[in-house]
Structure formats: structure tokens, C-alpha cells
Amino acid sequence: xxxxxxxxxxxxxxxxxxxxxxxxxxxxxxxxxxxxxxxxxxxxxxxxxxxxxxxxxxxxxxxxxxxxxxxxxxxxxxxxxxxxxxxxxxxxxxxxxxxxxxxxxxxxxxxxxxxxxxxxxxxxxxxxxxxxxxxxxxxxxxxxxxxxxxxxxxxxxxxxxxxxxxxxxxxxxxxxxxxxxxxxxxxxxxxxxxxxxxxxxxxxxxxxxxxxxxxxxxxxxxxxxxxxxxxxxxxxxxxxxxxxxxxxxxxxxxxxxxxxxxxxxxxxxxxxxxxxxxxxxxxxxxxxxxxxxxxxxxxxxxxxxxxxxxxxxxxxxxxxxxxxxxxxxxxxxxxxxxxxxxxxxxxxx
Length: 349
Ligand code: TXA
Ligand code: MG
Fold this sequence. Notes:
By secondary structure, this protein is of the alpha/beta class. Helices cover 31% and strands 19% of the residues. It has 10 helices and 16 strands.
């Protein structure tokens, strides 16, 4: 299939381009587009065949449900059986934005879109291209992250091109995304709202708005037999091709340990990668050293995580050693992704 790649300026989107992308979605085709979190792979959420095509293009297991994207609050009601008061409150505080909420689904949402579940995940993104496209595409756009299943989520159009060119009708290039980590998911089908995936909207922000909030046991359990409730969180996504190890502890000791291991693996003939920050990269001298961002701006770390992991795939790193980024606001989201990428390989020094 020929994939049309269209550059659109988020500040001044050309309506002609958006209309063309919307038409593709209404006719059952697939369009990748930027959101404020990561790029999404969009298709008509109410069309069984479009949903099946999304799974096929990503190589995604069919029991892993898709998020339905809307572009106004009124579009929520037809998708769900009821909207709990707490969810309304959260929507008015955080939508449009990097938040997904789970509800009991209505009959208009096909089981093919929800991976067979009787609940539906809904998100109202804030990115201007995403909103315009959802409106032109008929109002309900199913969109998982626009990566091949198992690869890091795409934060720029080049990542989408790498994974999906030739498999979908169109890729909208709206430049780099702002947040770089997928939306926070809160489940409202439970008695107490439950975080199924941490994101930019963190636990404290949710608690300030909702009062009581729980963290899904499967996310924090050491016991790997306790499965997370969001089916996608059980897969070892975001996996780099090389072996990733996280080193935690006091700054000087972390740098010394990483340098020691990098030296050892380099001497043994392996391509080695190091993930540090602007503050620390000067301490390293072995292997390929990359800064993920600066500790004085934790959002920069979230924004670059996935592209750094992809860069290490591209240069064939067999071993990657990373510092830990347990920062105050986004630390939970960053470490959730990094730990999954590392298959939970962590050493403390
Ligand atoms: O930021 C985002 O949310 C991005 C952009 C494109 O909007 N989308 C995204 O979609 O991250 P995806 O498919 O890569 O991740 C969706 C996650 C998966 O872990 C999935 O299992 C979970 O949401 N999910 C979807 N529907 C669910 C449901 N009904 N119940 C529990 N988990 C659900
Ligand atoms: Mg994903």
C-alpha cells in the first residue's frame, strides 16, 4: 500500500489536508496523527473492520483494547451506559488533555474495538490536529499508539514511518509531541477510581481532584502473577532490542557503576549504550552516551525517553545502562515505562 505522508503545521492546520485525512477514516481507512502524548494510529472506532485493520497493522494481540478518541464532551454519552459524578469532575478538570477514562460501554461500541471487554476507554485529546481530525473523521476515532506492537511508542512522525509505512493510508506529520508518554488511564468501572497506567496527570493531581484514588495492584505488585487490569500493561512493551539495565542509588555511585559495566562490555566487544542526563553525561567515557534531558526539567526526560530507546535500537546496542529517573511529578510514569523496557532489571548501588 502507498502511504501518503502529509506535513501539517499544528498552529495553522490546512483544512484541506485535515478533510482528506478525515475522509480516509470515515471510509474505513487508517491515518496516523500526532496527539499531545504520542502519535496515534486512527481508524473509525464504530467500524468493526477498521478496528481489525488497526490490530493487523500494529501486529497487536486482539485482546488488547483500543482507546476511543472524541473531540467534544457531548460525544462521550453515546459510548457509555453511565457517567459517574467523579468522572464528570475529572473530565472538567483534565479534558481536553492526556487522560483516558474507562466506563461500561454502550452497544454502539463494537467488541472488536474493546478487545472483547464490556468496558470502553475514552480520551479527549488537546492536540489541535488530533481534535480537527477526530471531528472530520466522524467523531469517534480508535487510536492506539502508532508503533509496531512491542516497539517504543512514536513521539515523532519518523518513528511512525519506520513502523507503519506501507501498511496504512496516511501519516500526518505534525512534528514532535509535547509529553512523550501515553495518557494516564483511570478506571471508573471500579468503586474507587483506579489508575491503570500512570502518565503526565499524576496520582497527586488525581487525588486533589477526586479525593480517593487507587493504584491498580497489578502495576505495583512485585509478584508477576498479579496481572494489571489494562491488558496492554501486561505485555513487555517498549522493549529495546538490547538488554537494558537500570542503576539506582546515590549519583556518584550510579555513575561509577555504569561506567565500570560499560567499560567491561565494550572491552568484550559489545556495542554499549548509556542513558544519562545533561548533568551526568560528562562523567561517562565508554560506549555511546546519550542525554535523555535535564533533571531540572523532568518533562524533558519524559519527552525523550522513547526516542532515546529507538536510537539505541538503530545503533545496535547490545547492552544499555540507564540511570533511574524517579523525579517528583512524572517519575512514576517515566519509571513505569523504563522498568517495563528493562524487563525490571534493576541494580541498587
Ligand atoms: O496517550 C495515549 O493514550 C495514546 C494516544 C494515541 O492517545 N494511546 C495509547 O493507546 O497509548 P494504546 O492502545 O497504546 O494503549 C491503550 C492502553 C492499553 O494498555 C490497553 O490495554 C488499555 O489502554 N485499555 C484500553 N481499553 C481498556 C479497557 N476497556 N479496560 C482496561 N484497559 C484498557
Ligand atoms: Mg501502545
